[in-house]
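Risk register update: the risk of archive-format incompatibility is retired. Evidence:
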Amino acid sequence: MSGKSPDEKIMIPYLQKLVREHRALNRLIDTSKSIGSRDEVKSLKRLRLRLKDKIVALRRHYYGRGIAG
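Archived output:
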């Protein structure tokens, strides 16, 4: 048995998914800067920031329980 709580078993993959989405948004923003409108890039950056905030909050919550990232 791995010793992880059911909560950790759910949250680890969720946190990994959020990190992948954040990275994908970074790539999209980088490519959109030259071809996209400023409003589109601003919107993507806001979404990226919300994801980052969620990632940081989850890592803070679980850091003491061994889920640092």
